[in-house]
Every structure is written in structure tokens, then in C-alpha cells.
Design goal:
- The protein has one domain.
- Helix content is about 85%, strand content about 0%.
- The longest helix is centred in the first third of the chain and has 36 residues, at about 5-40.
- It has two helices and no strands.
- By secondary structure, it is mostly helical.
Length: about 90
């Protein structure tokens, strides 16, 4: 795999991670919306466990995205023909 192909792969992985984050955020808002509409129908502890599980997944995805963006930045630097010398 060439460096440019690797860079494009990072871009695709970043897009997928961002989509996952948007999905997780939508899940959180859906839970909050249901509480707003039907609050007393749901067990508070179960709701908290659900929110914490979603938050934990979100934290994992954000960490993966951080590492991915760092690798992508270093690769972009390596591919840059105008990078400073010295």
C-alpha cells in the first residue's frame, strides 16, 4: 500500500468514526427525548446504565479518532513536498 493509499484509508476511517459519533449522539438525544416525553415509564437506574454505556462507547471512539488523526497528520507531513527542512 502506498503512502497516498494509506492516507486515503485514514480519511475513510475518520469519516466512519465521525459517523459513529453522530450516531451515538443521536442515541443519547433519543433517550433524553423519551425521558422528556414519558419520564416515569422508565426505570431511572436502567436509563443511567444505558446512557453510561453509550458514553463509554463514545469515549472509545473519540480515543480511536485521536490516534487516527495523529497518524494521519504525521503521514500528511511526510507526504508534504513543501515541508520545512532542518
Amino acid at each position: 500500500m502506498t503512502e497516498m493509499e494509506r492516507y486515503n484509508c485514514y480519511v475513510e476511517q475518520e469519516d466512519r468514526a465521525l459517523e459513529r459519533l453522530r450516531t451515538l449522539e443521536s442515541c443519547l438525544y433519543s433517550v433524553f427525548d423519551h425521558i422528556y416525553r414519558y419520564g416515569e415509564r422508565f426505570d431511572r437506574d436502567a436509563v443511567m446504565e444505558t446512557l453510561l454505556a453509550i458514553h463509554e462507547i463514545e469515549t472509545i471512539v473519540r480515543l480511536e479518532l485521536l490516534h487516527l488523526r495523529l497518524e494521519k497528520a504525521y503521514l500528511a507531513y511526510a507526504l508534504n513536498p513543501c515541508k520545512p527542512q532542518g
